[in-house]
Amino acid sequence: MIRLVVYSSRDTYELDTYGDEKINITYAIDDLRNIESKAGDYSKVFEFPSTKNNNRYFGYLYDLQSDVSQYDTLKGHRCELFVNNISVFEGLLYLNEIVKV
């Protein structure tokens, strides 16, 4: 079971996911004597279902006619990815696109 938790300065949000996303994370370490010297960027693309919970968090961005949204699409939002209630990744959540079917 996949869970994505987003942290803001005031609240914590658990976004609804499809629950069966494939998680592929590859770590590479060049020098085992100095593990902290290895820096790299990792990313994972998620598609979120259109649920009331997700729409509330993203500020109803799917409605292009509305000026209600307060969601900052340019700012990364601190998040944590859980697989079977084990934290496997911490990072920033960015909104890349909205797909309206």
Task: Explain what the structure shows.
- It is a single chain.
- This protein has 101 residues and is mainly β.
- The chain has one helix at 52-58; strands at residues 2-7, 12-15, 77-83, 86-93.
- It is globular, with a radius of gyration of 16 Å.
- It starts with a strand and ends in an 8-residue tail after the last strand.
Defining key terms:
101 residues, mainly beta, 4-stranded antiparallel beta sheet, 1 helix, 4 strands, 25% strand
As a percent range, the share of strand residues is 15-25%
What string gives the helices and strands in order? EEHEE
**How are strands sequenced across the largest beta sheet?**
2-1-3-4
Total strand segments:
4
Task: Report the uncertain regions.
Answer: none
Principal-axis shape: globular
Helix percent reads under 10%
Termini separation comes to 26 Å
Major sheet attributes = 4 strands, antiparallel
Query: Over all CA atoms, what is the radius of gyration?
Result: 16 Å
> What class do helices, strands and sheet pairing give?
mainly beta
Helix tally equals 1
Write down the overall mean pLDDT: 79
List the helices and strands and how they pair.
Layout (H helix, E strand, L loop, with lengths): L1 E6 L4 E4 L36 H7 L18 E7 L2 E8 L8
Antiparallel strand pairs: 1-2, 1-3, 3-4
Summarize the structure.
The chain contains 1 helix and 4 strands.
